[in-house]
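Class, discuss our next protein.
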Amino acid sequence: MKAILVPGFWLDGSSWSDTLPALEAAGHEPIPITLPGMGADRADAAAVALDDQVDAVVAALDAAAADGAPVALVGHSGGGTVIGVVTDRRPELVARAVYVDSGPLAEGGSINDELPIEEGVIPLPDWGFFEQEELAGLDDATLERFRASSIPTPARVANDTVHLDDERRWAVPSIVIASTMSSELLQQLIAKDHPYVREIAKLRDVRYIDLPTGHWPQFSRPADLGAALVDALS
């Protein structure tokens, strides 16, 4: 199966590198992408909106599905919101939606409007900004490499409102790879109608894969994340 891999904040397509061998060995075709504002165009990142990133993934999905082959979308962190909106735009083309320590947001939500903005972008904050649970599994050397390669995220992507209008998205088979929060905790939040999981609660075909670690399993447990992605696509 083709799998479009959408990175989260501060990351580009190379962040998936250590998960690719497992996918390729299982016969899948991973397609890691770098979102608008996060590559060669980063100088113009302040002008990049959430819809610009969604449009880029829609274009990649259309191209990948042109030969009729099944295509999965994989989104990490903020990339989960992006693939959730893409699934709303193209539900008939998404064979699976895989959310890595993330999930789709409901209508009217925004990814994170509390991140500190500098000149229209959001640099990677100091590590003290994050909960310790989010940093689990990352040693000092990995944190240093992460920071050195981090790319400021367009502020509008974090703050723009999510708009959805096709309820067929709820029928797309979906998998949540639960890292920072366990699947048990996610289920508890669903029972409490927490806004973070309100859209997950509406999915009609969803399963969970627990991968206990921090928020960046592609760095803390890359081989295990690769195996989890293979499981999700099976």
